[in-house]
Amino acid sequence: MTSNPLLVDPTKQAKHFDSAAMLSAFEAGAKEDQEETEAILAQFDSLSQDPQLWADARITRTTENERGELTRESEQLREIEQAQELGRTKLASFMDTFKGAFKALLG
């Protein structure tokens, strides 16, 4: 049987490959990933355990949106009322002028 240079004997460590260093780097990375995952899960747990915080945030946002909407509607109503008042003033002025002209004609 002839030796095949493409086959590697798993019992012998290759000269150019440090499997211990590779394993050590892998384990360090895995440990770092695990710690980050645990930190994220711990933060999620603390946030999900206080649903009142989420409810309050939603209520606050809704209240602010509604306050803004009421402010806009109030401004629109004020503008409509001003326009109506201007119309009433013009109409009253016209009627006074008309009464004066009518009185002058009659009398």
What report would you give on this structure?
With 107 residues, the protein is mostly helical. The chain has one domain. It is 80% helix and 0% strand.
Short précis:
The protein is mainly α and 107 residues long. It contains two helices and no strands.
What key attributes describe this structure?
107 residues; 2 helices; mainly alpha
Count every helix, treating DSSP H or I runs of 4 or more residues as helices. 2
> Spans of 5+ residues with little confidence (pLDDT < 50)?
none
Q: Based on helices, strands and strand pairing, what is the structural class?
A: mainly alpha
User: DSSP strand (E) fraction?
Assistant: under 5%
> What is the rounded distance between the termini?
141 Å
The helix content is over 70%
List the helices and strands and how they pair.
Elements: H1 19-48, H2 51-106
